[in-house]
Design goal:
- The protein is mostly helical and about 80 residues long.
- It folds into two domains: about 30 residues, no CATH class; about 50 residues, no CATH class.
- The protein is elongated, with a radius of gyration of 15 Å.
Amino acid sequence: MKNKTKNALASGQSTYDTEREFAVNLMEHLVVPTFVIDAECRVMIWNHACERLTGLSAAPPLPGRSAGPIARRRGRGLLP
């Protein structure tokens, strides 16, 4: 990771952007279904394990979509 960070910084990419990209990439490839919603309950990250669990692709239009209907899909409570 150090070399990637150095290369990104050398190319003008900020440390924040590099670390955010790493975190998002990590979450997207977890084997545990993981999703992130914002304060307005819009899906920001929907990983591959969530795709397999729900059958819903992470491709647009899912990002930015309200998580409410997704959370209650087929009676499965994904959100408390």
